Amino acid sequence: MIIGVPKEIKNNENRVALTPAGVSEMKKHGHTVYVQATAGLGSGFADEEYAEAGAVVLPTIEDVYAIAEMIIKVKEPIASEYPLIKKDQLLFTYFHFASSEELTHAMLEKGAVCLAYETVEKTDRSLPLLVPMSEVAGRMAIQQGAKYLEKPLKGRGILLGGVPGVPPAKVLVLGGGIVGTQAAKMAAGLGAQVTIMDLSLPRLRQLDDIMPANVNTEMSNHYNITRAIKDADLIVGAVLIPGAKAPHLITRDMLKLMRPGTVVVDVAVDQGGCIETCTPTTHENPTFIIDDIVHYCVANMPGAVPYTSTLALTNATLPYAVQLANKGWEKACAENEELKKGLNVANGKILYKGVAEAWNLPFNEEIALANA
After folding, report:
1. Alanine dehydrogenase/pyridine nucleotide transhydrogenase NAD(H)-binding domain: from which residue to which, for each copy (predicted)?
2. What are the tens digits of pLDDT across the range 304-343?
3. Is 270 a residue of the active site?
């Protein structure tokens, strides 16, 4: 198969979808890989390394899209890329369709095959291609939250871990999945007083067993959230419903209950956000203030630590990418239920229920897979 790796052009996105080691693996299976010039530079991989691994380096993004049967990316295509996408071209990347109606319609109209990292799902309901970036984002949420709590950045002016004689900051984490767990561990490690909420009692029991003494678990409901935000210094939104919009657990009216300078970090912003006032921001302009509350809503947080993020992501995606390249998407999805669940759009149809529901569009429960 002919594989293309374009340079990411979303604001301050420095990750790359395939490392030189990944190119070498693809070559071992007999595939041809084209990489756009400087695609890996932000992650620390020079064009020469890709060439040595067996890739052909092309000068422009147009060249890569034009020649590739399968495009491997990190972030969803943006508007300037839509015209480059060909009918039946396979795109393997994060899409988060439920947060962008424009992207959804664009991919339907282009007739692309869109296999989304975030909905590839194992039999135990885990999301193997979301986990590594969720781990990074959860840890980064605390780093960024701690920074924006500083007074020069309009925060409350509180040190996350406190000092002897001065109590630590209070951190509220909404969601006990991968993001929430990593955020709670990171905040606890810095000495904060942490509360983590989730809807699942079994999950809260697990968290109670593994978390240090400065982490408390609590059932997530409107009453408990409303009470907790009144004295929280940092709130991390870590709610995920795979492939669908996140529910708004904190509404605009609830901001008035918080103390001025409180920081909210909504890691779920690329799925619509679980804090109503959060809208996607960039690393260039990461925050905004509403009702004296600092909002950090960067939609590609792991892009700020691209070396770590690229290695973590490609460790997870490469085995699936190899299957797609070896068998073609139809046979690979017919034989691998995990990959099949990653199919969001194909043949001009929506194949993932959460996406269809988000935009009130027809949902096609099944697609005829060749070689099935």
Report:
1. 149-297
2. 999 999 999 999 999 999 999 999 999 999 999 999 999 9
3. yes
The residue annotated as part of the active site, out of 96, 233, 266, 295, is 96
Domain with CATH 3.40.50.720 in the chain: 2-119+306-359, 131-299
Q: Which fold has domain 2-119+306-359?
A: Rossmann fold (3.40.50)
CATH no., domain 131-299: 3.40.50.720
- β-partners of residue 173 are 196, 236
Tokens at residue 83, please? 């015209």
What Cα–Cα distance (Å) separates residue 351 from each residue in 144, 153, 178, 244, 367? 36, 43, 26, 13, 7
Residue among 285, 291, 238 nearest 261 (CA):
291
Give the CA radius of gyration of the chain. Answer: 21
- Cβ within 8 Å of residue 86, ≥6 positions away: 65, 66, 110, 112
In the annotated binding site for NAD(+), the residues are 134, 198, 203, 220, 239-240, 267-270, 298-301
Q: Which of 63, 233, 266, 270 is catalytic?
A: 270
* pTM assigned to the model: 0.85
